[in-house]
Amino acid sequence: MERAAPAQPNSRTRPAVVDYRAPVAEEVLDSQIFFEAALKAGNQVVDFTSQVEALLAQMTLEEKVGQMTQLEIGMVSNGKGAKTRIDPAKLEKAVVKYGIGSIINVTDEAFTIDQWHEIIRQIQESARRTRLKIPVLYGIDSIHGVNYTVGSTLFPQEIGMAATWNPELMKRAAEITALETRACGIPWNFSPVLDLGRQQLWPRFYETFGEDPYLARVMGVGAVRGYEGTGIAANDHVATCLKHYIGYSFPLTGKDRSPAWISENYLREYFMPTFQAAIEAGARTIMVNSGDINGVPGHASYYLLTDVLRNELGFRGIVVSDWEDIKKLVTQHRIAATEKEATRIAVMAGIDMSMVPSDYSFSDNLVALVKEGAVPQARVDEAVARILRLKFELGLFASPMPDITLKSKLGSADSRAVSLQAARESITLLKNSGNLLPLAKGAKVLVTGPTADSLVSLNNGWSYTWQGTKSELYPKDRLTIRGAIEARAGKQNVRYVPGSTLDKEINIAEAAEAAHNADVVIVCLGEGAYAETPGNIEDLTLGDAQLKLAAAVAVMGKPVVLVLVEGRPRIISRIADGAQAILMAYNPSNEGGQAITDVLFGDYNPGGKLPFTYARYANAQIPYDHKPYELQDIASAPQFEFGYGLSYTTFAYSNLRVEPKTASIDAEITVSVTVKNTGSRTGNESVQLYVSDLVASITPPGKRLKRFAKIHLEPGQSKNLRFTLRPNDLSFVGPKNKPIVEPGEFEVAIAGLTARFTLSQAP
């Protein structure tokens, strides 16, 4: 969704860090126990049917169509950024004349919370002057925190949150985001992204929870539960919007908003489970895929939007279009000759609300279509009822104005501490030859590379602006990697030489020469900020200037640590062997510089695990759950496996047991294993359980993740873990595109240990 962005916090002093530990210290955080509890907590819905029907009966056609129309803030305001002001005449036209149901976005950059309060107040006061006094539903992209509000708490992007393998921490981050979004007076958040990250070129890869549907659905449900709580009328929760139903993240070319070719079987096996789980968790709204699948645009697919989403998955909420995507049925997809015809196609396919968003064409066209009989009045009533119900559920009819008492909650020290912990837990140690890390106290350090001194890279897109590229908008009191290393090691022990930009050489020779006087070289590489289409690239390989910089310092003979700050796994095979240590930092947010330094110097023991397969070559993107015959030779082997990540301590696995060894296909299987911390440091471990269906009617994957648990172990401590596999965990989408469980032999694998069991046909 193309949108504007935020400005910088005005705090200049770094508050004291309150250490936050997600609840894994004293107990096991079992993925399935969390998942089932989160689903159960989301079923508390108040029935507003009578209120909706009574209001709907009073509405004119024009008022109903107005509710289905969503405009961007520029349609009711003048100015940009901090100078944005509501234009009374524009507001009168939108809210009073057209009865607009929803407004979204910012103008260019983030607003202060006071600015938000004034804007929302004026919009809702205008709504109160309408005949039926229906409040306006304001929506915003709080993608990794409230990224369009000055002074808010930002968190690692979703791909980094997935690397924590900690859904409880995801839930806590979403709770904070919901509170801070609602503190602005905004009750609707266009998050989480539930697209599956199986096309690493895709510029929105960092917005996903990675390549595995089980990990992604557990983390996704954690996000939904955190955002929505047990009731969205509460002033600290918001309505979610699941994005982008469905298949958007798997374009054939890797380019944003371009065609995907996905078989029905593959779509249901991989891309549907995240949405299905979030719907079961009670998610209120869904945004539609801007591209097309198998030649049918997402916004025109009755099959996906109605047959599957409504009739099969049971979704009851609002389906909203993405930015101008009804117009694009004419201008890009070319399945309609006119916007009026495109409007008919989209509404009849299942679109309830149109993000037009910069004119009134949708309203005008839909009113005309209903009057002509081309769109039934009943279809409009159906959509409007969903919109009104959400407004009642959010408590907007009773209390549409911002709660100014929540202002003090924005960007608190406690919330920042959660962000710091999330960044720490996400960081993934991929290589540590000779135990180079953690760095010795007093070491002389050379810091180089284009992401070393950049808050922009630490955050990526959706940060203070849509693209996140305006460095002047970032807070002045947050430390870059360079700044945090200097604070930790002492400036006298640190030298900084840029070496290169993201794509150009600067002073690589100087950086190499400086390595002579260093005990260790920290080379910070990766990406800048980008969002959506502007982030399209032709090659996953890291830029040549960065590769040359890393190679140049490596030949100087000093130990090299690569720190990768990137939203997608850029290919590093040319330089990986020359580095003694590699840290994957993803986009860890404003606290990322501190978190990375804590790991480098041993103040925090890393425990992150890759939520994707890190490819060795650009044309060897093979996910971990590939068919056994896909990995045909060693050259295709990944640089780093899905689920991989090292620690400064060691863990030993033993006593893997599966019971019973033989069971019917409707029985439960119990898997147990013992994990022991055999090292000298306290550490967190993400225990991963994989299942292989050894023979199936459709070629089975080599293995699939079915359970995980995050545990905290002191040195010498052991924990016995017990997992329960149910029939649906052993199912797959069969030849008729329906889930089936087949009898036969299965293998369970946990950290190199394996055990088998057999399922027989139920009597």
Q: Which percent band covers the strand fraction?
A: 15-25%
Question: Segments where pLDDT lies below 50 for 5+ residues?
Answer: 1-25
Count of separate DSSP helical elements:
22
Biggest sheet strand line-up: 12-9-8-7-6-5-2-13
> What is the number of beta strands?
29
Mean pLDDT: 94
Give the overall shape. Answer: globular
Largest sheet: 8 strands, parallel
Query: What would you report as the Rg, rounded to the nearest angstrom?
Result: 26 Å
Spatial gap, N to C terminus: 52 Å
The helix/strand class is: alpha/beta
What level of helicity do the residues show? 25-40%
Write the layout of secondary structure elements.
Blueprint: E1 29-30, H1 31-41, H2 49-58, H3 61-67, E2 69-72, E3 77-78, E4 85-86, H4 88-97, E5 102-104, H5 113-128, E6 137-140, H6 158-164, H7 167-183, E7 188-189, H8 213-228, E8 239-245, H9 264-271, H10 273-280, E9 285-288, E10 292-293, E11 296-297, H11 302-312, E12 318-320, H12 328-331, H13 339-349, E13 354-355, H14 361-372, H15 377-393, H16 413-426, E14 428-432, E15 445-448, H17 455-459, H18 481-489, E16 494-497, H19 508-514, E17 520-526, H20 544-554, E18 560-565, H21 573-576, E19 581-584, H22 592-600, E20 651-659, E21 662-664, E22 669-677, E23 683-693, E24 704-713, E25 718-725, E26 732-733, E27 739-740, E28 744-750, E29 753-760
Parallel strand pairs: 2-5, 2-13, 5-6, 6-7, 7-8, 8-9, 9-12, 15-16, 15-17, 17-18, 18-19, 21-29
Antiparallel strand pairs: 1-24, 3-4, 10-11, 14-19, 20-22, 22-25, 23-24, 23-28, 26-27, 28-29
